[in-house]
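Components:
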Amino acid sequence: MKLPPKIHAWFAERYDIGVVEKFADEQLHKPLPSETGFWHTFGSLSLFLFLNQVVTGILLMIYYRPTTNTAFESVRFIMTKARFGWLIRGLHAWGATLMILCVLVHMMRTFFMGAYKKPRELTWVLGVFIFGCTVTFGFTGYLLPWNQLSYWATTVGTEITGAIPLAGQYLKVLLRGGEGVTGETLARFYVLHVVVLPWVLTMLIATHLFLMRVQGLATFERVGEEKPIDKSHGIPFFPHHVLKEGVVFSLLIGVMVTFIIFWPVELGEKADPFVTPEGIKPEWYFLSTYQLLKYFPKTLGLFVSLIPPILLLLWPFLDRGRERHPKKRPVAVTIGIVAVVLALAFGIVGYLSERSISVGGHPYHFDIYGVPHRLPEQPKH
Amino acid sequence: MERSKMQRLPQRRIHVIAIACWLLMATAAVRAQSISCLNCHTNEMRLFSASAHAQAGVNCVDCHGGDPKATDETAHATDNFKRPDNKKAIAELCASCHADVRRMNPYGLPTDQLDRYKTSKHGEQLFTQNDQKVAVCTDCHGVHDILKVKSPEARVYPTNIPQTCGRCHGDAKLMQEYKLPTDIITQYKSSYHAYMVFEKGDLSAPTCVTCHGSHGATPPGTAQVGQVCGKCHVRQRELFEKSPHAELAAAGLFNECVSCHGNHGIQKASAELFATTCIQCHAKDLKQLQLRDELAGLIHRAQADYTNAVAAVHDATVRGLATDDEQLLLQEAKTQVTQLEAMQHLLAVDQLRPVATRFDEIVKQTLGDVADLERIERWKRNALAPIWAFLALMAILFWAKRRQLEHKRKP
Amino acid sequence: MNDQQPISRRTFLDWLLAGGLLTWAVAFIAPVISYVWPAQKRGPSIQTVSAGKADDFTDWQTKMVAIAGQPVIVIRTPQGFRAFSAICTHLGCIVGWDAARRQIACPCHAGFFDINGRPVAGPPPRPLSELAVAVVNGEVLVKSA
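Structure:
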């Protein structure tokens, strides 16, 4: 896109726009490795979803009121009175889930393709922090509608922080703004969710993107044997790769709108500190950790649950192999698959625990550890 | 000099203390108006000191007479000494103050207790038959430990009434002598009225005295049951008076409320009453039973419809649909249903039908509105088709453009 | 000729793309503008409802209004306007106005409330909760708690 000549001249007489133009041109048409395919779109999908969260979040803030007397009612207002409020809220709530999913897929893609290896270790480390930030966004945002689910899930979640040895109780009180989950908690979570975390995540993402751009996307070449990509061999970022991302983007929008309409986010019942609903569980992205913690006593559980994030963080420094292609890294790939399977398994067990379902006509109840017990048949009257 | 003073001070102090004590006791005695009774009757004194009479400045002599200054049995030897040994005498002794208007005026107490008592079953038995087994003032109020009715420890405080009445009316052997039912107290304890008093703490709910009266305690006759229940259940009584059963009640053939609801063991009115009570008289009367079924059916349907409507609106609210108007409609529906439940005492289906119809209209409108909200949700689902079509088109366009660019690069 | 065909095809695709992207942009922005435009005169925080013009009420005339799905009875007394929750404190029926007795009456069990909302006869245990009323520019406004 070129500026009209008169405007271009006006700027050229005052600023050295040549530098800006050259930079823009380089970035736009930057050649990407020719293997860059479908799996590489999850990074930008995550970025797009973050932007979606920011925009819909700002829109929600116009009508949302963060006090215990008004939070629930303001969400109700958004869903029932504000035009398209249901859509904005739906985009924000489903956007959160999809963002976490996309970030996870992006992480797995990066892992299995060995892109975290030298020289991109820091990019990976930043990415782990980005993931942590995203999940914290989810945790703090979940309380804001102030319904029964929010309130009790937050109670359970903050209770777990109390298990941290020594600092735990202080951390819990700091987080909650008191002994229990109250309007103070709501205010603190709101500030975190709406001001602190957005800035932190923006800076993390900016740095992550900057490093990615500066170093270029990884290929399957071995560490130390990477060749720079020139224009004749690479794919220009714009418009070629962007068009491919456009296809995936269209799919994502379709998926989001479908979820919003078929599985609308419900309003729920206003938080009641005196009534604990049955089977309170955290959101899906916490289910595997939640279930894992049940099998260990408090402090030990905390340490065990810290192992995956620490492993993730240190992984580029632990895996010094020079191969990137998954077929040539059986150990790393196996460990990766095992981790994913374990996370899924714990997550599923976490979902089933404290739940009764019927299998083949017989009722079963899964206890807190996920062990199924066959319930006695109800006598027929 | 110093030392001798110091030696004498403690002694002087003891003397001072002793005199002070004696003065205190004396003033206590003066407060008790210099009566010597407490020298021997310490138990009674203990009970009496916390009583309402003591607070009012009444003392032993005011009731018993005697010589307050004598310190031995000669105190009892005076002419005016009273030790009521039969219940009639007790009643008259209490009435000697409590029926005296001028004396009771400053305390704001009623003065018709003895008159009322003489009309009660207890009073009748006592004054006409000299039956010493009936209750008299002291049996219910206590003797020396009488407290104000308002005081929660008083024997006649609402929560203590069943126990007080139960001392005789719960004594099976005693009740059999009079051919009175022996299980009244147990029945009452199982009743909804008792639940209101004891568990919900609602002291406006009835105890024995609320329905039977206190001093004039009499079981209400068949013609009066409605009046008694109607003191609180105003609307139901109004409606009953317009029903076909009212004439029967006036003629003494139908025990108004008690016939269907019972008396002492009364439970919360529910659908079961329709099944159990009508057949007591109308067992062979098919026409009346049909009317009953119509009436009962109308009300049950309304109740079930109301419950369903509440659930439907609640579900919609929890989902996040706009249900303000529907909740208002539910309020109206509730008014109609509650009216229906009271109106069944009319026993006239025709009169209930308009209310039931209005109710049905409201419920229909409510559910219709909720369905309309659903329609919007359906509309959203239908909108997905064109949305996906557009997105698919855009995806194809992006893909086509990319292919085109690739062909351009590598012709 | 050969030059013209590829050019027109490319332009056609470009036009389609441009049109599609524009439609897409509008489809995003239109709901946002609709959302941001105030949905009702007063937002989610204040619940104020108009009961009509003050002049439409004669003394002792009443009107029922709804605030947040709850019925409210508005009464004009010689001393001014009063508004009470119209839900009877006994079993929740909607109360009405008994003009003859100048009291608020509940049709279900003959409960009566005086002009201050206090129960004077029948089973209701508690007074009706009162709502603030103000006459602003000749309009009767009722404010929820």
